[in-house]
Amino acid sequence: MKFPSSFLASLLGAAAHAQAPLTVPKPVTVALEQVKPADIKAHIAYLADDRLQGRKAGTPGYQLAVDYVSQQFKSLGVQPAGEGGTYLQKVRLRRAFLRPGAAFVARDAQGAALPLTAGADYVLYPSPELPTTRVTNAPLAFAGFGISAPELGYDDYAGLDVKGKVVLIVRGAPRTFGSTVASASQDLAGLLKAAISHGAVGLLVASTHPAPPASVKAGTYSVLGANGKVAVSRTFAIGSQQQFYAAVSAATLQRLLQTSALDTTAVFAAIRSGKPASAVLKTTITANAESTYQDFESYNVVGKFTGSDARLRDEYVVHSAHLDHLGITAPVKGDSINNGAHDNASGVSCVLEIAKVYSKLKEKPKRSMLFVFMTGEELGLLGSSAFAANPPVPKAKIVADINMDMPTLIAPLLSVVALGAPHSTLIEPVKRACAYMAIDLENDPEPEQNRFIRSDQYSFVTAGIPALHIKYGNKTADGKNNLSEDVQKWRAVTYHKPQDDINGRFDFEAGRKYVQLCFLIGYQVAQDTARPTWNKGDFFGVRYGGQR
């Protein structure tokens, strides 16, 4: 059920007032007071320096970042928690390309080919697993949003036979879904898995924009397992013989539906209202492609502090941030190095400073703390997916993840959004920490950005581990409370551009408060004898957390 924002805000507020206030031991407050804005800036300045060439996974510049955070761990006395007594967890990555000559033809009921142009009307993706893929005259079936969620009472595949067919879907979710559930329901890996598990041979994803996604000439990325097979992918259903994955434009979607005389306005109105409108279309798909591969290695960096409680030290609380960025791309205003100062040198810096706070505590918290820097986030959450699937500690012993990705430190930190926290008992330590620091806790001002599934915390969620990501809120010192508008303007000229460098807009005092807040959230989880749990009946707990 979707509640209005005002109702949720009042609910959170009432619960916060009912809680006992957070009491922080004196040694912890002393350590927290030693967090320095200058130290946060120094980490960012190094990681966002031109010498690191944008920290793209698998490059020498990324390795410099790995070496830097490893050395920081060593200087703080953080214990190695990677492979073979090191701080490193190897992540084997595959970059897949299409060979020239790939073909895609859609034919109507009379066998006439629709006039479609590669790049403008459709984009074919390479297969990361199968060097040759082929479908011949496969029937096309429209499956609405492609969502199969019986736990929500919604299934676009109900009554639809897609065995041996190519499935056509449009990105989106019913308006009846809550914002984070709607975001999760649009995760491409899940949509692909749903289609293939119902017997489809491939998936055709329609964009709501005039053109399909940008060309895949630069390649697509996946993670390889120890057996050399694909273990993590956003374009391939693991363990299947999937033959086809492609994207089409909004105009192409209209053409494909109209070949079966479907009223697209009525169809879209139905699925948006929560009524599936799936149908087998009078269209067939023929496609063939050959793929080639470049395999390379990158690294997650993992350190730990062992907990103080004899029973709970075998459980772990994770603080995470992605270490990689985009590398070198086409110049923007004469600059081609994507330094990634905010995205995500800032998050990495905050995790390092949290580790520093723990290093100053003579008595560590009851649970052990893991500090994890991920590779391949910009390639599709690949490093975090690899970590969550095969962590260097028992997965069942990881109780929570607090992720830090581009906290957007451009203004005083007066309010925050705890993405993911309302789905589990993690919301309680968030409320207490916010109250302790006099920081307001708000709803997401931009739910349409789907941030919950776009950063590394989501890899932990899909592994069944409660997780959250603390982002800026909307509160401003002048009382206008429109920070998200300011952020949108700033992001338009900075996000994923070379202009995101250390000379840009920063509020390092906000960074200090962010470190302190996230530390207090994790510290409470580490001290509580009860581990975090998914809320009863929660979508993510039911789907991924083993709830019934």
Q: Can you put this structure into words, describing what you see?
A:
With 548 residues, this protein is of the alpha/beta class. The chain has two domains: 5-77 and 306-543, Aminopeptidase, CATH 3.40.630; 95-294, 3-Layer(bba) Sandwich (Glucose Oxidase, domain 1), CATH 3.50.30.30. It contains 15 helices and 21 strands. It has helices at residues 5-18, 26-33, 37-47, 60-76, 179-185, 188-197, 250-258, 264-272, 341-359, 382-389, 427-436, 457-461, 483-494, 508-527, 539-543; strands spanning 79-80, 88-98, 103-107, 122-124, 132-142, 148-149, 154-155, 166-170, 202-206, 220-224, 230-233, 244-248, 279-305, 316-322, 327-332, 335-338, 368-374, 398-403, 415-419, 440-442, 467-472. The protein has a 17-stranded mixed β-sheet that branches. The protein has a two-stranded antiparallel ribbon with strand order 6-7. The chain has a two-stranded antiparallel ribbon with strand order 15-16. A hairpin with a 2-residue loop joins strand 15 and strand 16. Helix 3 (37-47) packs across helix 14 (508-527) and helix 11 (427-436) packs across helix 14. It is globular and about 80 Å long.
